[in-house]
Amino acid sequence: MIPIVGMRGIVKRFGDVVALDGVDLALQRGEIHALLGENGAGKTTLMNVLSGLYRADAGTITVEGEPVEVRAPRDALRRGIGMVHQHFELVPQFTVLENVILGREGAVWLRRNRARAAVQQLAAQYGITLDLDARVRTLSVGVQQKVEVLKALYRGVRVLILDEPTTMLTPQEVDALFSTVSWFTSQGLTVVFITHKIREALRISSRITVMRRGRVVTTCSRATVTEQQLVQLMIGEMSPAVPARDGRLRGDQPVLVVRDLAVTDDRGSRAVSGCSFEVFPGELVGLAGVAGNGQKELGEALIGVRAASAGSIVLDGRDVGRTSVRRRLVQGLAVIPEDRLREGILPGMSLTETLVLGPHHFMFPRGRYDARRAEAACREAIAQFQIVAPDAKVPSAHLSGGNIQKALAARAFLLSSVAGSKLLLAMHPTRGLDVRATEFLHGRLRDFVRAGGAVLLISEDLDELMTLSDRLLVLYRGTAAATFERAKFDPYQIGAAMTGVGTAGSA
Amino acid sequence: MTETQAPSALLPLPYRPRRLPWEQAGIYALGVVVALLIGGVAITLVGGDVRSAYATVLRVSLGSVVGVGQTLNKVTPLLLATLAVVLSFSGGFFNIGVDGQIYLGAIFATGAAFAFGALGLPRVVLIPAVLLAGIAGGALYAFIPAVLRAVFAVNEIFVTVMLNFVALFLTEYLATGPWNDPLAGEAITRPIPGGATLPMLIPRAGTHAGILIALGAVVVVAWLLARTVLGYQIRAVGDNPRAARIGGVPITVITLFALTASGALAGLAGAVEVSGFHYRLILGLTPGYGIMAILIAVLARQHPVGAAVAAFFFAVLLVGSDSLQRSVGLPASAVFVFQAVIVLTVLLAEALRKR
Fold first, then answer.
1. A358 contacts on B by Cβ (under 8 Å)
2. Which residues does chain B have with pLDDT short of 70?
3. 3-state secondary structure A403-429
4. Burial A255-293 (b: 16+ CB within 10 A, else e)
5. Which of A5, A7, A479, B202 qualifies as a cystine partner to B207, CB 3.0-4.6 A?
């Protein structure tokens, strides 16, 4: 049987990073094909190549056996391939109908009635119930998703790609989505379902392709695999046993105590709830979890830029849960922020000025900005962290992503040296760093712990977490679902806890 | 807790790439040349002689002691207004209400001059009191949008624009009502007591000491922004409020300070106009200094010293343009077109150069 879509040897690089490393994938007509993998495995990148958003550096794509060139989303659409992204691309002020026909209105006249009939018929055929005259901004996320799907169908899509479609949905909406999608296949549609949730893949799909680190691990039929096998396939080979570590570094009094913390996200739903844990001096605690399980909101609540709705945060013996960010810096918090561009740098100001943001509270106690002292600190950071920058005065935005990341790490250590920080909150600190810079930063983090400091490391890279951490917390749906001591690190059990499979592994 | 929004999401603040000085000078020269060309076309269209018109502008504004003196008198309010804009822009706040704050400064200064003048205070006390009253008036007026922005996240652009009208009508009321000069028959108040007027710097040219105050303010604002932690924090908030917040910068305090201090500078401009130039409160005290100040601040890339140079240039145009009305018949407001063309050309050239 000729697959409706065949991808062979797809390679995609972003700078030095190989996102897709020779990927093969075949989609059969009328199937629901789950693309399963951790964050950064390459699922979305692969589908972005298929839908024309990215161009592959190598490899071929065939549609019904014929080789095709996909240069832009337009080319993919012409072949009947369309993607519904995680973040919708709808015009909020427009009605459902206007959104569905957007871009296909015809040359001059908005033939609303003719379009309406066509859209209504299409919706009926695919079992989608929608009020075509509702303004999109008044609709819930689940309904907006239906609009996106209908929009794709209106463009004649026969291969529908859904990127993490359940992330923002309520359980009821997920049920509705699944039954709609099942109906699609009876109408001859092929659906690709990108997810990192094993149970969803098992529930909806007919075949599952597991990806890891830019490669396809395997493609299998749902009937032939179990949950546990999929966890193993996703997480990868058992890493060599992590070296044991001397536990005597750990102090007795916790430096950070989080009790029953609850935090809401931007949309007002609970991102963190009933979250409790402790971090002791002289230990590095890793916070593992699939993205979107509350890491971001937990980090922001610890920093003090997002209000906690319940619970307490005690830092070095003092409840800082309601205090300003500055107060927490004084109390001993240092931060490597998650989003280096939006939360990290001062793009229009110099590298020096970016570097002292935070430390400045402690470097210039008398209110005078001492440019010479700041620049000296910056030159030292450039040398130590091998930041590639012409000088200390270069505008921060001129640096590359990796070098900005180094600068932000350097800033956290500068802060800890001028403020005597006791807890370093490192959010994805090695994202975008090359191997050498990563190793250097890992070394600095361990040094900080050895000197009696505490590190809370939030990362999506399980290998990194297992190599560095003395203890691992798994965040699942906003709670610290499981704890693993270093001696009992087991990637399968950790992976199971991350994906919410069973309640395995509490130490 | 209110989430502060990056103002750059609303209006593009000038991005400042690194550029060689001569390159930047070339861009400015280009702006002036293009403006001269377009101005020349306009002058020709109304039947004037381009060369003699431009010569007149320069002669009137710079060609004599009196001309220079009058130009300096125009620099003073322009420069203070520009510094007000520079300070608020640096924090990422769009204070469009400088004109209103100038009026409130002028009102407070006039009121202080009447009140303290009646007490018969000596000049050395009276003048500072008048200036401080102006500063307080502008600051208090800007405190309204500052609080609304800092506490309730209300966009300061709308508030300041609206308050401009309020200030204008308040001035009209005072100038035609309680403080009206019955002898004048215009919307102007009684003159302030002689002891409340700024001394002359160049008596022959009618130049008052306000220019020294403005230049002093340049030094203060430059020092504040570049050499103090407060100024650093203002610039950090202006550049990336989210990063500043994570860096422990108290956004609320910075917002309150930057907008209020901006209003204080505008209020000082109003006080200087009353105390140094008009000797009374008049309707039309500011012919849009606050709006011109935005152009100058953008042109000077929010640098206080650059603002002084650009303000001087704009003042030359302002003074010279009056003469164009007389000699060529070009309306005085044509100067605004001229100023705008310069700014647009410079911004366009910078944008093209950036690619």
1. 246-248
2. 1-21, 332, 353-355
3. HHHHHHHHHHHHHHHHHCCCEEEEECC
4. bbbbbebbbbbeeeebbbbebebbbbbbbbbbbbbbebb
5. B202
- What does CATH list as the number for B49-327? 1.10.3470.10
Q: B110, B278 in Cβ contact below 8 A?
A: no
Grade residue A499 by pLDDT with cuts at 50, 70 and 90: confident
pLDDT at A237 over 80: no
Q: How far is A383 from chain B (nearest CA, A)?
A: 23
Confirm or reject contact between B353 and chain A (CB < 8 A): no
Convert the pLDDT of each residue in A292-319 to its tens digit: 788 899 999 999 999 999 999 999 999 9
Chain A contacts of B244, Cβ < 8 Å?
A: 346, 357
- 0.95 surpassed by complex ipTM: no
pLDDT in tens, A406-419: 999 999 999 999 99
Element (H, E) at A218: strand A215-221
pLDDT at A504 over 70: no
What DSSP designation does A61 have? E
pTM over 0.80: no
Spatial separation of the C-alpha atoms in residues A239 and A244, rounded to whole Å = 14
CA angle at B16 for the pair B10 and B21, rounded to the nearest 5°: 150
What pLDDT does A16 receive?
Answer: 67
- Domain A242-332+422-507, CATH: 3.40.50.300
Cβ atoms of residues A82 and A101 within 8 Å: no
DSSP string, A143-156: HHHHHHHHHHHHTT
Residues of A with CB under 8 A from a CB of B: 303, 305, 307, 324-326, 328-329, 335, 337, 342-349, 353-354, 357-358, 360-361, 364, 367-369, 371, 394-395, 398
User: Which residue bears the tokens 């922020």?
Assistant: A337
A391 CB neighbour count, 10 Å cutoff: 12
If we measure between CA atoms, which residue out of B298, B305, B284 comes closest to residue B345?
A: B298
B250–A347: do the CB atoms touch at under 8 Å?
no
